[in-house]
Amino acid sequence: MTDALHRDLLELAQEAARHAGALLRDGRPADLAVARTKSSPIDVVTEMDIAAEKLITDLISGRRPDDGFLGEEGASVEGTSGVRWVIDPLDGTVNYLYGLPTWAVSIAAEQDGETVVGVVAAPMRGETYHAVRGGGAWATGAWEGERALACRPAPPLDQALVSTGFNYVTEVRTHQAEVAARLLPLLRDIRRSGSAAVDLCDVACGRLDGYYERGLHAWDFAAGDLIAREAGALTGGRPGERPSPDLTVAGAPGVFEPLQRLLEDFGAWHD
Ligand code: IPD
Ligand code: CA
Ligand code: CA
């Protein structure tokens, strides 16, 4: 029964991500502008973020009217079924605004508070990543069928390629830059893609050895975190904790632990 439910949730998440991805890819106005700002003047929302969230929540609630919702652009419904959808309709809005290709639709389904399904669609890559808890992580793209995802065998930390991101609030990003400056000489290099969901899936694909960021919300990491874990990566927050707005860390076993330790030593979660 649970497996059948998870399979249904996966198919619904894939359908919603496919439609929202097509809307964002094909419907992007040439004169796309900022509709409003949120935590700071550089934390922007476009009409397309709002339209994509509406498409996703309309589609899912039409099929499953008793489910709960948490969406970045305001969806907030308690629900009565025990299933809650956690949605970032457009992760990587600043890239999208500038016409850069790294952005994604991120949809997770939780059952009784645990993430059981994650789908991240990256339309400009032509790739979609998905996972069901306990069922491995998979990608579809410009190839036949589904490809199993596996994180990369861990290199020594000084040869690890690690991605991160910076918060929209000036004081937080200033501190993040200080942490990154201390980390950089200890790694192969640092990347900043502009989409937390894509970063987590890149850990799952073996395109990155690790990823960390402070200040994420559940909608940024819910789907990507499950996909990374199902691909064999370890994920967490501060030592002993789960990913949270304080800190999200992901990495191949062997990269995760030393990275998490360094982030703790450098106070990566601090104000
Ligand atoms: C942002 C992206 C970015 C990360 C920011 C997020 P948004 O999400 O994931 O990579 O560094 O912390 O807020 O605003 O584009 O949905
Ligand atoms: Ca986001
Ligand atoms: Ca977003």
TrEMBL record:
EC code: 3.1.3.25
Keyword annotations: Hydrolase, Magnesium, Metal-binding
One Pfam assignment: Inositol_P
Requisite cofactors: Mg(2+)
Catalysed reaction, written as an equation: a myo-inositol phosphate + H2O = myo-inositol + phosphate
InterPro entries on file: IMPase, Inositol_monoP_metal-BS, Inositol_monophosphatase-like, Inositol_monophosphatase_CS
Family classification: Belongs to the inositol monophosphatase superfamily.
PANTHER family: INOSITOL MONOPHOSPHATASE (PTHR20854), INOSITOL-1-MONOPHOSPHATASE-RELATED (PTHR20854:SF4)
Name of the featured protein: Inositol-1-monophosphatase
Species in which this protein is naturally found: Streptomyces bangladeshensis
